Amino acid sequence: MGWTINDIPCQEGRLALVTGANIGLGLETTRSLAQKGATVIMACRNRKKGEAARRQLLTEGLSGLDLLELDLADLDSVGRAAASLNEQYGHLNLLVNNAGIMAPPRQLSAQGYELQFAVNHLGHMALTQRLLPLMASQADARVVTVTSGAQYFGRIRWDDLNWTKRYDRYGAYGQSKLANVMFALELQSRLQSKNSSVQSFAAHPGIARTNLQPAALASGGNHWEALVYRLMDPLFQSSSMGVLPQLYAATAPNAQGGEHYGPAQLGGLRGSPTQCRIAPAALDPQQRQRLWILSEKLINTHT
Ligand SMILES: NC(=O)c1ccc[n+]([C@@H]2O[C@H](COP(=O)([O-])OP(=O)(O)OC[C@H]3O[C@@H](n4cnc5c(N)ncnc54)[C@H](OP(=O)(O)O)[C@@H]3O)[C@@H](O)[C@H]2O)c1
């Protein structure tokens, strides 16, 4: 049998922050970490939804759950969240960059960037950069960035990151998820070159039953898209299976910074976590550095 949540080592004394913790894979991540004794800061964009999720976990007998307001579509909100965590806790052991959106109609973030690139990539990069100093001297500090199989068809549109021309809902999702894995690997290489003990990982869930696909359909899908999802339905695994690769990256003693985990079966769509293929663009240091510098410029224009 493959790795399961029973294999997660004791997390007592560890402080974790999970983005998008109110539902789906973020909620599962929070639940599993709290079950193993971690204190988990549930970073949610909507306080009401976050509070409802926290109450649900408390009724399951869990404790050590805190709530933090975080809207990744607004870099000012990211700055406020990081400052508040610093003030309240002053340290962090684990950051799980989990929140995400998929395939909305073209929209812009508060700072004017294409929404999927902004929420999935730029907001998480900005958050990570703000929180790394709090992780620097912590035992077994880890940053886990959640990507997707969409990285394999993703392409960085260097000449039009904002999709001002010919917006493609899934193309923009692919770009943002490729950016996630490029960021995770580039972060690992930068941490290593500074002899930092913090490690950076990437993980993807395959296809898991969460609110991601229903939300994509509701916001911009047509009946063809609905039909494709219906046909794919038998392939979807539960969110408690889909969450395993990111939990493995977050907790397994054998996991090594710079690695990428995903499900082992059906070409990475489902199954137990294993180390898996990385999109070629993310293996290219020049492309990773280019994206890093560009992203930093976009983030710093507004801080
Ligand atoms: N499920 C899959 O099959 C699948 C496949 C590949 C990759 N993934 C990745 O897995 C991660 C988790 O997704 P999921 O499947 O659990 O989806 P989900 O059920 O839709 O959950 C997404 C979470 O992200 C939050 N979020 C959205 N926009 C945000 C913003 N601006 N600021 C802060 N939080 C925001 C959502 O908050 P609200 O509830 O307030 O909207 C929600 O908590 C994502 O990165 C996704 O790309 C999922």
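^ NAP complex. Residues 19-20, 22-26, 45-46, 49, 70-73, 98-102, 119, 146, 148, 204-205, 207-208, 210-212, 215, 242 surround NAP (CB under 6 Å). The beta strands are 15-19, 39-44, 65-69, 94-97, 142-146, 199-203, 260-265, 270-275.
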